Amino acid sequence: MTADFLNIDLGDGINSNDATASTQSVVGYLLFKRVLIEGANAISSPLTYGFPAVTGFLGSFHAMSRKLAESKADELSGISLGGVLLACHECTPQIYRDKPYNNYTFNQTRNPIKRDGKTASIIEEGKCRLVMTFAVEVLADTALSDSQTDTLIQHTTKWIWQQRMAGGSVHGLARSEPVQFFSYDKANELKPNLLPAFVLMEAQQEFSEIIKEVRFDNPNATALDALIDVSSLHHIPETLPNGETKWHTTSRKSGRGWLVPMPLGYQGISELYDAGVMQNVRNPEYPSQYVEAIYGLGKWVYPQRLGSNESEYDIAKAFWRYHYDEKNSLYLVTQNS
Fold this sequence. Notes:
- By secondary structure, the chain is α+β, with helices and mostly antiparallel strands.
- It has helices at residues 19-22, 54-70, 146-162, 191-194, 204-217, 223-230; strands at residues 4-7, 25-41, 80-93, 95-96, 105-106, 127-140, 169-172, 179-183, 198-202, 234-239, 245-250, 258-268, 288-301, 306-307, 313-314, 321-325, 330-334.
- The chain has a domain at 10-202.
- The protein is built from 6 helices and 17 strands.
- The strands form 4 sheets. Strands 1, 2, 3, 6, 7, 8, 9, 12, 13, 16 and 17 form an 11-stranded antiparallel β-sheet that branches. A two-stranded antiparallel sheet has the order 4-5. Strands 10-11 form a two-stranded antiparallel sheet.
- The protein starts with a strand and ends with a strand.
């Protein structure tokens, strides 16, 4: 398992734990339609690749929420951003293979040039092209006025073009009404704007069931064995009466929908160091800690299945948020309130 280090910024901004944020509630949603992202990071963890890590998107809107806090516009005072709903229209990894049965490899670039003009060694990385729609919770003490809504849309439309998304750059938005605001009681009106796409949901209940099934077959199996089993296809031969062999392909996730392994955050594996103690961190003004990735299962769901509280998937529970467990040194992304 590859260790990494993490800067612990638990101050103002998205889903912070300060007293001001705790008094706010969701008053509406900002919808960013069909955001075209080029060069997004396709390597989401040491074990997974394809769709970027959820933290890459939450961090982007965390930065936007900070811009809201620093804005001098009176209409934006006391407004912050909360959880983020992720709807993916298109995800195209930048990969190549020279023959039909060869393994795919990521397209690599040689940059930047060294001081002597020679090309630097390739630092392997994976990129992808995304078309995403984001719904972001808007937090405030009271409902927003029309003036506040207009100002919020105006500023966030400008900021989304400036903001890096999962390591990529924003190259386009929907031509018609790229950024919209929906009040809290009109959450279901978000769904038509998400089509056609898939919404990323947690699948921890399915994962727990799969772990039990795997351990029923092998009592010594671990949760990692179950995660690998979900990612595998089992080809089982069957000998027919005429002597021919027929192959059956099975999977643990059959009948459970489109399940995908994904990183869900980080687990601390060292003590929490004070600001400035750990060297070569991204931001030395915050405490830092060595961590390892935590894995679980996600599920891609049609937007039509997001309904009210009585439906299988409540749209209010489709928003990803940060969760910090200080006692267990857990830094998670979750869809729990």
